[in-house]
Amino acid sequence: MVEHAAASVREWDFPRSAASVLLMTRFAAEHGVGHEDMLRGAALTLAEAEDPDTQIDAHQELAVVRHLVTCLGDQPGLGLRVGARYQVTTFGIFGFACVSSPTLRDVISFALRYWDLSFAFGIPEVEIGDFEIKIQLHDDAVPGQLRRFLVERDLAAMYTIMNDLLPMRVPIRRLEFAFDSPASMDDYEEVFGVTPDFGCPAHASTFDVAYLDKPLPQANAQTVAMCEAQCREMVARRRARTGISHEVRERLINLGGADTGMDAVAAELNVSTRTLRRKLSEAGTSYRMLLDEVREALAEEMLATGALSVSDVAVRLGYAEATSFIHAFKRWKGVTPAAYTRPGRG
């Protein structure tokens, strides 16, 4: 039997809690990176990140991830050390529902139905056989330069939480990564308890199917029913909010992108500028943030062709001068446009 996360059709572009961003910000602070630097690219304050009611766009979390990787280096194992910090309580009502589930089988089924409420960027596929269960994590939609960190983080978080739920540690039979083998296996062995195989076709972990039906110590049918009702409502509310962000991004690209005004986009959507601003606020984003995302994506595409100079790209993206574009690009990528396109980079 093979099961997929409900988010697989929509990938990971949905509103989410800021708890994951806060966790990564605190991790960065322990390594000398200030919270203002970490949160600047996501247009968040520390107070907003600490507020449990704050909703952010997935691209805001990606901005924080990108800055973390830039500051601490894209080193193998970094994602593992961050992922091991995630606890069931990090996931709010979603995590509480997992704790209250009868068995690990129920947890996995619940998590796949409400994957929108997680912080993962990889999309899981679970295959349950007669003797073992295999969890494969698809990273097709994850930005390439952040792929290793996010796959490591998501798999480490999933395994850490699985062991938090059960009274015993779940031994992994096989652990596979599509990445190249790192110089050291220490972090992998510490987190997962096994030595992974690298250069495999996919990212996957396999363990004994018998652990699926082990009873969880805090199982409570009434509690999990209440939690699921709240999760169902949260997912419906969040999915309803994703449409406007997607539509604005599409209009920004179709209308010439970066120099398109908010009034023009509102007219394309047949709403007033005031209504558009309100809908974006309800979705946890803003016109300026979406414009920034589109500019970043278009900048990458334009620079990748090699046919346009930095000044040409700046003009096409609606910047009054090249220096403003260079400053924005450094905020997005951590390097200047010239360094980003330098031969031999990455």
How would you explain this protein's 3D organization?
- The chain has 16 helices and 7 strands.
- It has helices at 19-30, 35-40, 46-50, 58-72, 78-83, 92-100, 104-113, 147-165, 186-192, 221-254, 262-268, 273-282, 287-305, 310-316, 322-333, 337-340, and strands at residues 2-4, 16-17, 55-56, 123-128, 132-138, 172-176, 203-208.
- A hairpin with a 3-residue loop joins strand 4 (123-128) and strand 5 (132-138).
- The longest helix has 34 residues, at 221-254.
How many runs of DSSP E, i.e. beta strands? Answer: 7
Strand content: 5-15%
Quaternary state, please?
single chain
Give the % helix: 40-55%
What are the secondary-structure elements, in order, as H or E? EEHHHEHHHHEEHEHEHHHHHHH
Instruction: Label the structural class.
Output: alpha+beta
| Span of the ends, CA to CA | 39 Å
As laid out across the biggest beta sheet, the strand order is 1-4-5-7-6
The main β sheet shows up as: 5 strands, antiparallel
